Amino acid sequence: MLNSSLKKEAVGKLKSALHKYEVSTETVKGNAIKLHNARTYGGDVIKKVEAYINTLANTPKEFAKSIEQVRVNLASFKALSEISYDEKAMIKLAGGGAAAGVAAGVATAALAPTAAMAIATTFGTASTGAAISGLTGAAATNAALAWLGGGALAAGGGGMAGGSALLALAGPIGWGIGAASLAAGGFLASKKNKDAAIKADKERVEIVKATRVLEATDAEIVHLKESTQKLATGLEQSLLAFTGTARSIRSFTEFSQDQRDVLRAIINNTESLSALFMKEVGK
């Protein structure tokens, strides 16, 4: 009777821990979407700066170098954000429905396209690097989908670090079927009370650890989102103010020294904003 009570208590605590983990997961996904939106807005602001610079003649060589660095910083984010998302392809790349891959496929495909792109760009902007950003067309799509699905799972690979991060955020299946099965009662039903209680408690401890990691990750995402939003908003306001007072000028040599200093500050802030796109959460 005592062991039965211990089992019931352990399962109750496990289910409670599982619920908290799932809540944390949803919070992280929601804030990752907000970060993605802030970065998308920042990218639009950067395009405006670049477009304006391109209208000017006789700009310093340092401007061209900065713009090129900005493009490099944005490359991976742009590649992951602009791929076409196909749930069937996602599931196929994650295992094609085979026993070994269906869990990963279902967990990944369960994410809406916006959430998938948000998670991908939050955890893989820098890590994907030229591996994806240097590709085009179908090759880029397949590479990015494979990354989202956890790497070359269909080929028996362990998947890239970024893909693993995505799956870890895709729900209980991300950290294995153990706790999910235990919470459902299927596995525990066949176990003796004492063994089930011990197993449930071990799973709960792991879930609590994972939840704490998620909470720390979420705080980092929120901070990065706020920094990106603040810098992007300030940059857009600076650009609008500058172009408003220098509307008729089409050559850098025609600017006053003060205007040149302001424009250099705009370029520097543009590069700083683009550097935030390279920031990997959890690194």
Portion of residues in beta strands equals: under 5%
Mean pLDDT level: 74
Distance between the termini: 48 Å
- The percentage helix is over 70%
Helices and strands, in N-to-C order? HHHHHHHHHHHH
What gyration radius follows from the Cα positions, in whole Å?
A: 24 Å
How many DSSP H or I helices?
Answer: 12
Q: Structural class of the helices, strands and pairings?
A: mainly alpha
Shape: rod-shaped
**How many strand elements?**
0
Largest β sheet strand count, sense and barrel closure = none
Low-confidence stretches: 93-110, 150-179
List keywords for this structure.
283 residues; mainly alpha
In brief:
The chain has 283 residues and is mostly helical. The chain contains 12 helices and no strands. The longest helix is centred in the first third of the chain and has 53 residues.
